[in-house]
Each structure stands twice: as structure tokens, then as C-alpha cells.
Inverse folding.
């Protein structure tokens, strides 16, 4: 692994930083307060090529590597974790899966508009009774010859109402267990496809999270991804990459909170000196900086292994497990360093603390990451 970023990496990092500071920062508190989706800002991210960063330009993407991707997400999450997850889901869970596993026809029809950011996508695996236990899918897709009939409910779907294209995982043959699961591309507006009310969440309130209901939805056969029974392997492969995106989001949240706490500690005075000059505060910041550096190295290692085409199930899970813990710990300490000001919205850190929590839950809880990691430790 090369620790030096290229000129191109630095340029992308700077572009994401500039965008976050000029376009996201201004309205982030209001969007959080009113659970408002950043519609205009998502369009700007599309114009910057941030919604299909790793997709080949022939399919409408930016053709960049995973290092560029994690740098961009981190910069965006420093300011607005909601915008970061919208971006992460579209890039990692939707575009990456379509590019790697879909046929040419499916790519031209669905991947191109998603990678350009003309539309955004959602990944629908979780169900009311199948979150961590993802093989227990209750949503069914029954083979009817030229189409499948899709029935069931999906839960906690990021981009739930803002998406136009949905990747839906469903059981096609219960007898075969996880080998009887398939993934389908479903379009918004198809008969029998309904979107439930927006979830009221602790954090990442700028992103829209919904349940989705499918009642006798006719899915054309050509919308199945890969060979029959490939759906679970597809979901696992996609999530391995997705976890690097969420690890970067967590790293960004931690770094954003640390930056604010460091600045505040040099401005705020107590007992006759800046609070940074009190060892109790300086030591907190030393720990935060160290943990953030360790998280960053894990994220970059996972991204560089992805670029090298290696198996990233271990490195992606380690990056997510550790970076999400750092996001939680760092944001709690950032609130503590801000004292009373940390508890009010205008100082940002209380939102960051609420936003951090989800990084330990979605795309595999921390407990699931430990399962994934432990299974890679023995052959
Ligand atoms: N990478 C590749 N393959 C994997 C894998 C991984 N990380 N984990 C499991 N598999 C494969 C196994 O090798 C096995 O394949 P074979 O039968 O061909 O050998 C198959 O998947 C089944 O695996 P297990 O027997 O281990 O199944 P299990 O039921 O014991 O456990 C699990 C599987 C790892 C716990 C899995 O269910 C899992 O990852 N759960 C978490 C799901 C998740 O991350 N959900 C997040 C929802 S998406 C989301 O949050 C999106 C959003 O909007 C932000």
C-alpha cells in the first residue's frame, strides 16, 4: 500500500471539501431539524461526478479509483453525514453492483442514468424480520414464466422515496435457502409498488428512509441480476464494498467533530486559559487524533485492496467496525469538550453524535462485522 496520495487524489479531495463547505454547510442544521432531503445538493454532486465515481466513463461514471471515492465521502461526511450516505449507497450498493454483475443491456438501461446522477438508487435487503439475519428473506419473487411476481416488505431503505431504481433481494425458492435468493432491478411507479411513510430518525435526518411494500409487482425476467440463485452472493459482495463507503462516512463524521473540538478548545477560556491548555482536554484531543489516524489507515487499506482487486471482506469489515466506533467515541468527546454549547444545534457536534450512531448499525452492525472478520481468521 502506497501512503502517498496522487495529484489527482488531492484534487478530488479538495473538490469535495470545497463543495461541502460552500454548498452543504450552510443548510445542514436546517435540513437536520426538518428532515429535509438535500435535493439541490444531490444534483450538484451529480454534476461533480460524485454519484458514479468508480463507474467506467462508458457507462456514465467518473472512472476513478476507490481511494478517490473514500477521500470524497470523508470530506462530505465531515460536514453533512446525510449527503455522504446518499452518495455512498448510490456508488457502492447500487452502481458498483450493477457495473460488476449486470449484462450490457441492464447497464445501458439502468447504470448509465444512475452513474450520471440523473436518478438515484436504493438497495433493498433489510426486512422487518431480516436485518442482520439476511438469509431469512420473507419477500418472495415467484417465477411466472416471462416475469416474477414480487411480494413482501423491505425496511429502513436509504433513498427510499428519492430513488427511481431499486435493487430488491427476494427469495425465489425457499427450499434452497440462501441459494434460492435472487436480486432484481425494480422501477419506481410499477403497479403494486408502494412507499411507506418517512422514518423519524435519531440522525442522518437529511437522508430519506422508508419501508417499501411490494404487492404482486410484475418484474420482467430480464431484470434479474445474474444467474438464478445468485442474489445472496450478490448482496454480500456489494455489501463488502459498501462497508468501505460507510467506514469513510464514519471517518468523516469523526474528523469533522474533532476539527470543531480542536478549534473550540483553542478559543474557549476557563480558569484563566484556553481549555486546550488544560491537560484533561488536550489528552482527549490526543486520543481522538490518534484514533482518527488509525481509522483513516484502515479505510485507505481497504480502498487500496479493492483497487488491487483483492478480497475485501476482512479489510472492509475491519475499517467499518473500527471507524464507526471512532465516530461514536470522538463525537461524544467533542460534545463534552464543547460543554453546554455542545448540547445545542448551532455548534454541530450534537448532530454529529446522533449521526455517528447509525454507522455502527447499517450495512451490517458492529456485531455482524465481528462475525465477518472472525470467519476470515480461520480457513
Ligand atoms: N462476503 C462474501 N460472501 C459472504 C460474506 C461476505 N462478507 N458473508 C457470507 N458470505 C457467503 C458465505 O460464504 C456463504 O456462501 P456459500 O454458501 O456459497 O459458502 C453465504 O454467504 C451464506 O453465509 P453464511 O452461511 O455465513 O450465512 P449466515 O446466515 O451464517 O451469515 C451474514 C451471513 C454474514 C451474517 C450475513 O447475513 C450478513 O452479512 N448480514 C448482515 C446484512 C447487512 O449488512 N445488512 C445491511 C442492510 S443494507 C443497508 O444497510 C443499506 C442501507 O440502506 C444503508
Amino acid at each position: 500500500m502506497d501512503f502517498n496520495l496522487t495529484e489527482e487524489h488531492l484534487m478530488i479531495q479538495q473538490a469535495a471539501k470545497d463543495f461541502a463547505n460552500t454548498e452543504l454547510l450552510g443548510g445542514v442544521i436546517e435540513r437536520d431539524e426538518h428532515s429535509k432531503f438535500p435535493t439541490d445538493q444531490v444534483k450538484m454532486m451529480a454534476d461533480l461526478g460524485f454519484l458514479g465515481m468508480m463507474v467506467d466513463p462508458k457507462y456514465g461514471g467518473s472512472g476513478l479509483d476507490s481511494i478517490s471515492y473514500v477521500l470524497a465521502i470523508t470530506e462530505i461526511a465531515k460536514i453533512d453525514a446525510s449527503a455522504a450516505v446518499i452518495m455512498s449507497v448510490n456508488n457502492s450498493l447500487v452502481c458498483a453492483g450493477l457495473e460488476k454483475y449486470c449484462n450490457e443491456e441492464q447497464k445501458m438501461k439502468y447504470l448509465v442514468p444512475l452513474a450520471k446522477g440523473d436518478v438515484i438508487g436504493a438497495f433493498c435487503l433489510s426486512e422487518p424480520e431480516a436485518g442482520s439475519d439476511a438469509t431469512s428473506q420473507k419477500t418472495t419473487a415467484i417465477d411466472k414464466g416471462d416475469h416474477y411476481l414480487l411480494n413482501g416488505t423491505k425496511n429502513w431503505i436509504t433513498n427510499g422515496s428519492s430513488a427511481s431504481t431499486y435493487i430488491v433481494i427476494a427469495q425465489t425458492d425457499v427450499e434452497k435457502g440462501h441459494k434460492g435468493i435472487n436480486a432484481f432491478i425494480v422501477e419506481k411507479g410499477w403497479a403494486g409498488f408502494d412507499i411507506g411513510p418517512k422514518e423519524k430518525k435519531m440522525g442522518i435526518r437529511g437522508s430519506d428512509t422508508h419501508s417499501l411494500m411490494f404487492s404482486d409487482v410484475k418484474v420482467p425476467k430480464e431484470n434479474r441480476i445474474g444467474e438464478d440463485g445468485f442474489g445472496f452472493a450478490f448482496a454480500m459482495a456489494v455489501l463488502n464494498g459498501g462497508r468501505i463507503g460507510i467506514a469513510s462516512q464514519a471517518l468523516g463524521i469523526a474528523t469533522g467533530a474533532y476539527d470543531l473540538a480542536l478549534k473550540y478548545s483553542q478559543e474557549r477560556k476557563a480558569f484563566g486559559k484556553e481549555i486546550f491548555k488544560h491537560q484533561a482536554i488536550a489528552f482527549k484531543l490526543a486520543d481522538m487524533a490518534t484514533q482518527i489516524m488509525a481509522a483513516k489507515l484502515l479505510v485507505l487499506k481497504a480502498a487500496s485492496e479493492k483497487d488491487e482487486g483483492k478480497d475485501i471482506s476482512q479489510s472492509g469489515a475491519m475499517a467499518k467496525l473500527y471507524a464507526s466506533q471512532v465516530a461514536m467515541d470522538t463525537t461524544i468527546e467533542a460534545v463534552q469538550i464543547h460543554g453546554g454549547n455542545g448540547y445545542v444545534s448551532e455548534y454541530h457536534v450534537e448532530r454529529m453524535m446522533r449521526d455517528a450512531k447509525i454507522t455502527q448499525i447499517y450495512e451490517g452492525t458492529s456485531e455482524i462485522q465481528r462475525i465477518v472478520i472472525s470467519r476470515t481468521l480461520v480457513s
